[in-house]
Amino acid sequence: MSDDDIELEARLEEQEVFEPSDAFVEQANVSDPDIYQEFEENWPNCWQAAAELLDWDEEYEQVLDDSNPPFYKWFTDGKLNASANCLDRHLDERGDEVAIEWVGEPVDEDDRSFTYEELHREVNECAAALRDMGVGEDDVVTMYMPMIPELPIAMLACARIGAPHSVVFAGFSADALATRMNAADSEYLVTCDGYYRRGDPLDHLSKANEGLAGVDHEVSDVVVAERLRDGDGFGHDLADNQHAYADLVADHAGAEVAPVQRDAEDMLFLMYTSGTTGQPKGVKHTTGGYLAWASWTSQAVLDIKPEDTYFCSADIGWITGHSYIVYGPLALGTTTMMYEGTPDYPDRDRLWQIIEEYEANQLYTAPTAIRAFMKWGSEYPERNDLSSLRLLGTVGEPINPRAWKWYYKHIGNEECPIVDTWWQTETGGMMVTTLPGVKDMKPGSAGPPLPGVDAQIVDTNGDEVDAGRAGYLTVQKPWPGMLRTLYKNDERYIEEYWAEYSDTDSDDPDDWVYFPEDGAKIDDDGYITVLGRVDDVINVSGHRLGTMEIESAIVGVEGVAEAAVVGGDHEVKGEAVYAYVITEEGYDEDDDLRQRIIQGVEDAIGPIARPERVIFSPDLPKTRSGKIMRRLLEDIANEAELGDTSTLRNPEIVEDIQGKISGD
Ligand code: 6R9
């Protein structure tokens, strides 16, 4: 080992540990440490614990059918309905309690709340309207909707009649809508006239119509919910096959639709997610396994109880909103919140105001948001009473220790445990995270795999790597919430997720390994630190460096708000570290800061990780879900031809950064 290696290893080992408070542990849904061992010993039957959280119309025969890997089946021959599990079964005891608390943009008093009774009625009316329109079991209904209550209502209405939904994020382009409707052969669309963002009405229907023009088959019906207030509309006329949501529901006032009995393995929904190349992947989730997974993880990790008010600030257009705004929380009968707009309008304390006003008990958000809050400063959360919070969560990308600690201190008042939850669209729900009532927290590390989840860090040969060494994250055994396939493309399913580490000719499940394409390392306590997508690992002179570790070091430097690190081509080193940096307000983009950044990285990781270039930038190119587009930053660093920038939230930033690269 070289000196650099030794220094790196030593630094990886230093890690702070935070314990959950006794007060939290005492009331936690899960607090028995034996759960890990019990689940391991009873695998796969341990997952009965998840299935037991649901009401089944017919009991399942077998927990896991692994006779045809990787096409696993869970809770076979069980019958259930997801909407009945999220609504009907709560009516007797919780009918008058709030199911969804919707906070609209505060243009005027636009908030709406739905008790379970009211939500049940709305969902039934919507289901009746969809059914009368001709939507049958297994017809894919596409939804192109922002954060308005009609979105979860329509999702649950589809679930009620056994029609899978395919939600397309409202911020996506018309093209993205058309591609997804085409891929799913979807003949129905639910959308809306528009919505509000930073005080302005946005025209959504024009974009939906533009998308519809690109659909290659006949679209029978389009439902248009009205969100815009009188006077804010864009003068749309509905086409013959377009129906106003309010009219449809009024025509079906009081209607009741018996929930269709679905097989556990029947599709609940499709969610398209982008792959490294080409067409988006249609991830297929099922009724039994997915719902059990979303419910169990909501209970065990987010510590949701029926009497809680739970706030996840994600968009329902992403998997996080599906599992942890809609299905998990509603299956548990809690109050789930959704908000329209942005965290900085009308001011940078929007979320804190919402938490105070509704006395939210949990907040589940993303590192990118936390870094923005940190950049804006602690005076914003200090304006509000956040003492109702009991637990904090993060998801979506690795969280650097500095942001973790800021979240812990300024939002959680050093009293709330933080769950850093690693999972993917494909996994359906959380996979690697601490159980907050059982495990200590280590900032920057997601934690051990959940009980019953067999995650391992392996090298390119598939052999487990030693603690502290970077490798590839794998999941060695199936789990109920897993995707079942890519819609109508079993081959690509195997290719994308299994081929890397499996013997694809074998029908022995032990020969099949799921590969999420993330790099990771594990410590001596079994805590997993996710280093980022595999393509985010930089190889500098043969040293594999996680962009996350370097970013974390940079963000630890005073004056830095956010950083993204990519590998730029280098003649000698193979790759060199390129650091894009956003400064905190009040700091100059000067040589002093540049030197401190370089020093910070050297101090934290070692000279091998020293940035070759530090590029100051007012913003970073981000996808609409807030993920930094590192691939684009790599292309900019290498002054290469840029790929598709159409899914960026802020495409205008690209030229700006390009100018800086060639200019200095
Ligand atoms: C839920 C969601 C999945 C990818 C995943 C990984 C990254 C998510 C993370 C995390 C480190 C965490 N990711 N959570 N990385 N720590 N806690 O985000 O799904 O949009 O499909 O993204 O996000 O790289 O592979 P999705």
Annotate the secondary structure layout.
Elements (H helix, E strand, L loop, with lengths): L2 H11 L8 H6 L7 H8 L5 H4 L10 E4 L7 E4 L2 E2 L1 H5 L4 H4 L3 E6 L8 E4 H18 L7 E5 L4 H12 L3 E5 L4 H10 L4 E5 L1 E4 L2 E4 L1 H9 L7 E5 L16 E3 H7 L10 E2 L3 E7 L7 E6 L1 H13 L8 E4 L6 H13 L3 E5 L10 H9 L3 E4 L1 H10 L2 H4 L8 E5 L5 H11 L6 E4 L33 E4 L12 E5 L9 E2 L3 H8 L20 E5 L5 E6 L3 E4 L2 E4 H9 L4 E11 L3 E10 L7 H14 L6 E6 L13 H8 L15 H11 L1
Parallel strand pairs: 4-17, 6-7, 6-8, 7-14, 8-11, 11-12, 16-17, 16-18, 18-19, 19-20, 29-30
Antiparallel strand pairs: 1-2, 3-13, 4-5, 9-10, 14-15, 15-23, 21-22, 22-24, 24-25, 26-27, 28-29
Helix pairs in contact: 7-8, 7-11, 9-10, 12-13, 15-17, 19-20
Bound molecules: ligand 6R9.
Written account of the structure:
This protein has 664 residues and is an alpha/beta fold. Among the domains are: 455-530, Luciferase, domain 3, CATH 2.30.38.10; 536-663, ANL, C-terminal domain (GMP Synthetase, Chain A, domain 3, 2-Layer Sandwich). The chain contains 22 helices and 30 strands. Strands 12-11-8-6-7-14-15-23 form an eight-stranded mixed sheet, with helices on both faces. Strand 24 (518-522) and strand 25 (528-533) form a beta hairpin. Helix 19 (547-555) packs across helix 20. The chain starts with a helix and ends with a helix. Ligand 6R9 binds at residues 273, 319-320, 395-398, 420-425, 446, 516, 518, 530, 532-533.
